[in-house]
Task: structure prediction
Amino acid sequence: MLIVKKFGGTSVADKERIFNVARRCIEDYKKGNDVVVVLSAMGKFTDVLVSQAKDINPNPPKREMDMLYTIGEQQSVALMAMAMDSLGVPAVSLNAFQVKMYTTSAYGNARLTGIDTERIKNELESRKIVLITGFQGVDKMDNYTTLGRGGSDTTAVALAAALHADECEIYTDVDGVFTADPRHVPGARKLDEITYDEMLDLASLGAGVLHNRSVEMAKRYNVQLVVRSSLNFSEGTVVKEAVKMEGTLISGVASDKNTARIAVIGLEDQPGVAFKLFDHLARHNINVDIILQSVGRGGTKDISFTVAKDDLAEAVATIERHRETSLRCEKVDTEENVAKVSIVGAGMMSNPGVAAKMFEALYDAGINIKMISTSEIRVTVLIDAQHTEKAVNAVHNKFF
Ligand code: ADP
Ligand code: ASP
Ligand code: MG
Result:
């Protein structure tokens, strides 16, 4: 069997953890399997790199940021190869440049475009454990890129797809995917399995346990994932196409504080206004999330929407630039202290009243809803960020 195993930062945070991971990999190797291991930077090292960069330059060039990021993962794989060597097992560490893990040039948010598997296959053939840096790639011009924070999961899934691996295991610091973040919701329950679609929504709406693109890719290439703990031997959570219905209305609750609201007030109530507004934003690569348009009154209307916090300044600047010409409006308001709280579950498709139940939980907790957005399998509300944990717990308690 060919197994791809990915270990996150906490799983390789110190010498003891590195040896723990080395032993777990060697166990599979000694059973005769081919083992490919993807590692993240040790502990919170990536955050340390961010602080170092911002201390030198509060607005570091994105290319240089990626250049800096890559050292974190490189340290992990080299130390892991040394640990395995000391345990008498041959291993080789490879970075994205050595593998050739090709991506687009979008520094800090690059997309994988192809993986050259030849070197990896050769190393496996000579019976080595192959250790690969997560999160990083190279573009056509040989610049280092990164896949976005948490991107090592995506590296692992991409490798599993490219190598036609039999298993792809994501090892982390919790026992699997829970009905809410177990660090903030004491009653959160571990799920035995979850569909790609539900996991994709949870990950995109703030459940940081998996990088959302890794789930997207797993679905596209039909890579079954197992999320489990590196610190114990419990079963974990399987992420796959279809699961047994457990009779629960929802699979989980997620929250995301990385959001900001923009309200464009007093737009002309005419055809094409929404198109112009969102077209300007799209041209600047700004992703827009929840959108709310007011009923037109006196020839004007308001449109509010949310963007990621990082995009707020650019979004406002873009709108301001077009205010006098194509986007006539009275004013642009912003609000940063907001958070999204979402419920996700295929069960809500066939059960009316799920949204109402969520709103009731928020009402009982005295939390005001600022915006609402829904899809077939999700309901998201925007609230004051200070109430996030209270809201998540209240909603979770209502459903579980
Ligand atoms: P790693 O470094 O292993 O990639 P991450 O910190 O990226 O680990 O992801 C694991 C963390 O995700 C957990 O420690 C947990 O706090 C958080 N998390 C958020 N939502 C969930 C959820 N629904 N289920 C499990 N963990 C969650
Ligand atoms: N080390 C990177 C990060 O902290 C990538 C990862 O952990 O997946 O975001
Ligand atoms: Mg992660």
